[in-house]
Design a protein that fits this description.
By secondary structure, the chain is of the alpha+beta class. Helices cover about 35% and strands about 15% of the residues. The chain has 3 helices and 5 strands; from the N terminus they run αβββββαα. It has a 3-stranded antiparallel sheet. A hairpin with a 2-residue loop joins strand 3 and strand 4.
Amino acid sequence: MIERHLEIDSTPDPASEDDIDAWADTIAEAITGILADAKPPIIVSHSDNADTIDAVLILAWRQHLWLVHTHSAMRSHDSILAIGSGRDIALGSLHTAARAGLADLGHEDAVSEAISLACMYDPGCGVDGRGPILHSTKVDAA
């Protein structure tokens, strides 16, 4: 269990892509520190390579998405990301949903529909008639 919490004092200027990406890198650096301090640590060593995060994380802020790596965040080039064992199917479904106009449903409904469509092709998905369980946090802009 990770008991240390990351507190964010400020957010970047939404008009500056450079500031936003620098902020995301700062958050990734803080996450790396938290995972290194976890008991047990969520950082693994590879023979000749540097230590890496033993997890896959997505960072989202406003309309921006990043894949969190050890000490850095990599922006999604098309604002679509997926992680987990069904990643390829989910990415295909999300891209299809975006092209088909499902994004007009609203973010949460579009993601729910894309996940439901992707799960139709994965027998281990476990999504039933109730649909996928989605967890997200929303922060109102001040």
